[in-house]
Amino acid sequence: MRDIFKGSFEDIFSRINIGFAIILLALGGLFGVLQLLSRTPGSPIKVSAATYYQILTGHGVFLAVAFTLFFIMGLTVFMSTRILKVDINRLLLKISLCMTLLGAVLAAVSILTGKARVLYTFYAPMKAHPFFYIGAALLILGSWFTAFALFLQYLKWRKQNPDREIPVPIFGLLATWIVWIEATIPVVIDVLKVYLPMALLGASVDVLEARTWFWFFGHPLVYFWLLPAITLWYYLIPKRLGVELFSKKMAKIAFILFIIYSTPIGLHHQLVDPGVDARLKYLHTVLTLIVGSASMLTAFNILATLERAGRKAGGGFFGWIIKLPWRDPIFSGMILALIAFGFGGITGIINTSYQLNNVVHNTSWIVGHFHTTVGTAVALTFMVASYGLLTELFNRKVIAYSLARIHPYLWVIGIFIFSMNYALAGLAGAPRRTYDLTFGGMAPEIWYTYLKAGAVGGVIFALAGAIFVLIFILSILVNKGEEVRIFKFGNPHENLNEKHSVIDNIKLWIVVAVILIILGYSIPLYQLYSQGLSLVPPVAKGL
Amino acid sequence: MTLFPRKLEEWYKTFTKEERNWLIIALIIALIMSTTTLTWHALDREHQVPVETMEVAPDVFMEKAMRFSMEYAGKVIPEGVDIYLAGVQFRWIPKELKLKKGVTYKIWISSGDVLHGFSLLGYDGTVYNVMVMPGMAYAVNVKFDKTGVYEIRCNEYCGLGHQYMIGKIVVVE
After folding, report:
1. Domain co-membership, B75 together with B157
2. Interchain CB distance below 8 Å, A293 and B135
3. Mind listing the pLDDT tens digit for each residue in B91-139?
4. What's this model's pTM, rounded to 2 decimal places?
5. Residue A371 is a catalytic residue
6. Minimal Cα distance from A295: which residue of B?
7. How far apart are CA A126 and CA A34, in angstroms?
8. Interface pTM, i.e. ipTM
């Protein structure tokens, strides 16, 4: 165990972040199973309403915000130092680590002591303990230092290699952190302007203002989770198959589309909010549909890479599919994550459709949707990548590899049963975020069927998650091994063009993104403030 | 690309015709969906996202909803009367609305404290959801074609008693 804290500071930074992320995954997952069983009709496990909403908050904050952020911080430094092979600013990383850990602890304390039952969206005018908001602010501001460290490291590399094209994984990581900065500026404004005055001074708030800033952050946030997963697909899948990525150019164009379009689309979370102009809701619907095309490019690129590898191995018209290494958990996990993301994308397009949204808004359909996106496309990718990190970053041999082979399949089977049933329950009107979904026995019969079937799926993927966490922890504790180079970081400049094109001009894409954000959000914000704020007092009772 | 297998070397060229076509197809799909959304908005007058809103303080709106609730308790609401429905921890005011079949009503929905969700649920499969925001009222126009009981549930977490927020719309001849 002790040797985990030996080695270069960059690796210790990555180990702490990824280890902490896995602990959060275990805790958040446990909360998930408890609430799932608690709301399933006929289940023997039942928690109180207060506990339910408390662990629901924990489930959202620990998994969607903290697990992803810490994992991505660790992964970024792990990959960037090995690929770019230039020094990263250690002071920035130290500041980042201290601030994010402190923020996470403050927020976790406020949630675990029951002082912040506000769910992970913490909608005003619900008031939580100030620790919750201070923790969130520290977590975000702290993470910026990792972003700055990466940007500086990239600029240093660029100085040494003025003309070379950017490697695809570095392009992906840069896109990730650019999207994160785009996303978090509005939420920092939200917390400083609305939530801290409310929590500390009891100031009145405008609910629409709080929600608009929140979703200005909330949608690019999902791309911040997704982009590292896509980066891992682009990087690790070809490596596992021993071929080149089908098209580096196409991969980069997908990332550029995410940088440009990820932010000015947040209003599609507010399609049934009063006080938002219908024309602006429509504009954001259209921009969201365009960002969908970036994922079409990813799907094409990865599948073409698979076909290339399968045909190289001698597969024919369809035969190439069985030639792929389906027994390799890193490969199978990522492909299953990609397939799940297909379903997540389709349900997402339905959510963003102007007229369809009011059918699915805040129903358990949404629960079905995001367990295929962040819950599988992102979480499963991170989990199977951890098998690689165990050997290459932690210098461990993966314990019980045969179980690791089963884990991705079990997870995806569970997720499909769970998500499909929750989506169907949502179409039948079942709300999300509700302690007693039977409403004291007054719910339609069909909900019971869906909820019970969904719970079966939930238990299956919880089991898969438990397998993963046990493998990870036990491998670290007992199974010391040799470093095996799963990621195969070779010569940083092999196969890179000497000349970079306009695609590699990241500054240009940042400028385009800023222009689009201004176009997408200047009118909503102008309307919001020009129509005058409608202030309401904060509410702390009943939570 | 699967349909027209090529020599391996050709895979390594960037931006093949198929890739370009795929990107164009993706953008065309986005375009078609955007146009459909607009067309639907122009053609279908029934299943609409509400557009009318009114700024109103939570206590003012609560008073309106209370007064409305007392005036029409147990009575069928006549045509042309604006309905006021308030969500407040943890009930709807009024708890029950009696409406006439085939008549279009305007329901003003707002909140007396925190954010709530208005979820209208018919056992015929009707599902309709909008946000209930303190400080802002939303005008939802409804017309029921069938008689029967429709349920109103809160679908945005509003506190520990969130699951008790059940209301009713009774549609009569």
Report:
1. yes
2. no
3. 999 999 999 999 999 999 999 999 999 999 987 888 999 999 999 999 9
4. 0.94
5. yes
6. B26
7. 24
8. 0.90
